[in-house]
Write a structure and sequence with these properties.
This protein is of the alpha+beta class. Helices cover 45% and strands 15% of the residues. The strands form three sheets. Strands 4-5-6-7-9-10 form a six-stranded antiparallel beta sheet, with no helix packed on it. The chain has a two-stranded antiparallel ribbon with strand order 1-2. The longest helix has 69 residues.
């Protein structure tokens, strides 16, 4: 009898190792299953298995004597690995039942093999009682195995744990274990398996939805972006032109500059000088008294001609009346009139239209320089206002980024706190969350302080009283089609620096011509005519014509001046050529830089999108209990950095276009600003 049982037992073992579709009867005990398989005996006790699934529920009568139902308790699993020495004796179906310790749980296929009579398994474990399980004659009502109740702290979702979003409030649940149906097939659902608090973190896949709770930290002290007066960029440019004191001073200087130009342009205008005089004279000699009265009226006209000559004309008329108390002195009245005309024409020094009109040309060139200086002042102030406005807009966006970063940090804190309260994360992780929140608060305060500083800087440029100005438009980046060759031609026509250099060359050429003229001999042709009409005497007429020649010897200042003006001309030409080359290079470089910055804007936008997606993925992993807080914080920092990078790239690109307009000299045309010089 014993030999027969051993033979049957050997056949059963042989069938187990060869993986044949033969029923394998397992009679577990509490000590055997707890020591070898390290898993819950509640799911194994009282069942008989075929390879590949659960065949049929064992009846309560088949449980060996000496083993009570209360002893079949769920034991926590400390390890998911079965000792290698025991794996050869464990049926494959038992390995499938260790699914709570593996991420993927296979659903066993139903078995339709008929149930065979029980086989004795007394040799499975030494000294274990023999169990004979007869086939059930009729269905047996299922009996639930009672176990000590524990307070349920949350609900476990049914089905695939990776796709559920049930709330875990404090700890993981303990579900009641029901016995298998007496007959038929059953799909084993992973959600019905027990979950343990000491499972490895990477295997905890139950999602967590954070309930609405109070903020983890108090709101950041200090103001957010203050309410104020929203201004667009066009309005800021208008305020800068109207209120900036530097522009006002430039316009005031234009009054004197236009007056100087008017004086230079009137060089060949005639000057008229009228004269009138009245005199009384009384002379007493002893008892004789003599009285006289005279009146004189006249005028003078002086005019320069472009050839270098000068014409002077004078007219005068006078009358005298005399009276005396002596009889021997006869009273008399006299009237006289005179006319004179003088002409002086240089023949060497100072002769010629070019020499005599050079001062007018220099004055006109200086006027052009003054206008260019005014335009440069306007362009610089407008450019500074644009940069200041965009810097304020950048500071405002930085505050928004910092606020959003702080909000995300607080949300992460809530998620992590829920995981800690659920026993899924250690409480020490909250320290890292709180440090992250404090860091975000510091960044927010810094961004707010920078916003106020930039706002005050913009108000300084606008020269307006302190009021809460805020940007009234969003950052808009558009692809500008830049034609480098056209921009270079525009720069040569409008750039103030290059035009100044060209005017300096023109002025240097005129100054050199005047210096060379001063070194010539002084030869003048003079002609004069005079006429004097007397009432008491004969009229007189005087005509004169002459020529004079002179030169200073021993004075080397004339040669020194010529050399100095020649050097100034060469230097001006070199400066003009250098300005031209630098301008063309600068325009080409700024066009290239603008195109590169536009590419950086596109790449920064992609980087920001990827960083946001990565943060969302890390937050989802943390919500599912599979992520780590340091990864979320790192992803959040990457999002902040990406947002700032995109913002900086956008501002840099827009500023590059503004700087290009300033270099080319078309800022006033871009903003449709016309320079109107005030009248005298």
């Amino acid at each position: 009898m014993q030999n027969n049982q051993d033979t049957k037992h050997g056949e059963m073992a042989t069938a187990t190792h060869t993986k044949k579709q033969r029923p394998v009867w397992v009679t577990p005990t509490v000590s055997f299953m707890a020591a070898i398989f390290g898993t819950s005996l509640t799911l194994l006790a009282g069942s008989k298995f075929h390879e590949g699934g659960i065949a049929e529920e064992l009846t309560p009568e088949a449980i060996p004597e000496g083993i009570t139902v209360s002893e079949l308790l769920v034991l926590p699993v400390a390890s998911s690995e079965v000792p290698a020495s025991l794996q050869g004796d464990v049926p494959a179906v038992v390995g499938d039942l260790l699914s709570p310790l593996t991420p993927a749980f296979p659903t066993p296929s139903p078995v339709s093999t008929p149930v065979k009579p029980a086989v004795s398994s007394s040799e499975v474990r030494k000294n274990a009682p023999q169990i004979d399980v007869p086939p059930p004659a009729e269905p047996v009502e299922p009996r639930a195995i009672e176990r000590p109740e524990r307070e349920a702290k949350a609900e476990v979702p049914q089905g695939d744990r990776l796709e559920q979003n049930e709330v875990i409030s404090q700890s993981l649940p303990q579900l009641p274990i029901e016995s298998n149906p007496p007959s038929g097939d059953r799909d084993l659902d992973p959600a019905t398996l027990p979950l343990f608090e000491n499972r490895p973190a990477e295997l905890q896949q139950v999602p967590v939805t954070v309930p609405e709770t109070r903020p983890a930290v108090q709101e950041t002290p200090g103001d957010r972006i203050p309410e104020g007066i929203p201004l667009t960029l066009v309005e800021v440019v208008g305020l800068a032109v109207q209120n900036n004191r530097e522009i006002k001073n430039a316009y005031l200087a234009r009054i004197a500059e236009r007056a100087n130009l008017a004086v230079a342009l009137d060089k060949f205008q005639p000057t008229f000088t009228p004269e009138i005089s009245v005199g009384l004279n009384q002379n007493e000699v002893g008892s004789a008294t003599r009285n006289a009265a005279d009146i004189t009226a006249g005028s003078r006209v002086r005019m320069r001609i472009p050839s270098g000559g000068e014409i002077n004309a004078a007219w005068n008329m006078g009358g005298i009346t005399q009276s005396s108390n002596q009889a021997e002195i006869i009273d008399e009245n006299r009237v006289n009139q005179g006319l004179s005309l003088n002409v002086i024409q240089p023949l060497l020094r100072g002769f010629g239209r070019d020499v005599n009109t050079a001062s007018i040309k220099i004055a006109q060139f200086n006027e052009n320089l003054n206008l260019l200086r005014l335009n440069s002042t306007l362009i610089n102030i407008i450019t500074d206002a644009i940069f200041g406005y965009r810097e304020l807009l950048q500071a405002q966006e930085s505050v928004k980024i910092a606020e959003n970063s702080l909000r995300i940090a607080q949300d992460i804190f809530e998620i992590n706190r829920a995981l800690v309260e659920a026993g899924r994360q250690p409480r020490i992780n909250l320290v890292q969350n709180e440090r992250n929140i404090a860091s975000r608060q510091v960044q927010l305060l810094g961004a707010q302080n920078n916003f106020q500083q930039v706002r005050l800087s913009l108000l300084t440029i606008l020269d307006v009283e302190d009021f809460p100005i805020i940007p009234g438009e969003e950052i808009v980046v558009e692809d500008s089609q830049l034609n480098e060759e056209e921009l270079k031609q525009l720069a040569l026509q409008n750039s103030a620096s290059y035009l100044n250099a060209e005017l300096a060359v023109e002025i240097a050429e005129l100054n050199l011509m005047l210096a060379e003229d001063d070194n010539r001999w002084d030869m003048n042709l003079t002609a004069s005519y005079g006429s004097n009409l007397q009432s008491r005497t004969d009229d007189t007429n005087d005509v004169r014509l002459g020529i004079g020649l002179s030169r200073d010897f021993g004075d080397r200042s004339f040669e020194s001046r010529i050399e100095q003006e020649r050097v100034n001309l060469l230097q001006s030409q070199n400066t003009r050529d250098d300005q031209r080359d630098n301008l063309l290079i600068q325009v080409g470089d700024q066009v290239r830089n603008a195109r590169l910055l536009l590419e950086q804007v596109n790449l920064a936008r992609q980087e920001r999108e990827f960083a946001e997606q990565n943060l969302e993925n890390e937050r989802e992993l943390l919500r599912l209990g599979r992520g780590e807080i340091r990864n979320v914080i790192s992803a959040q920092e990457e999002v902040v950095s990406a947002n700032n990078s995109e913002l900086n790239a956008q501002i840099a690109y827009l500023n590059a276009l503004t700087r290009l307009e300033q270099t080319v000299g078309i800022t006033l045309e871009t903003w449709q600003i016309t320079v109107e010089t005030p009248e005298e």
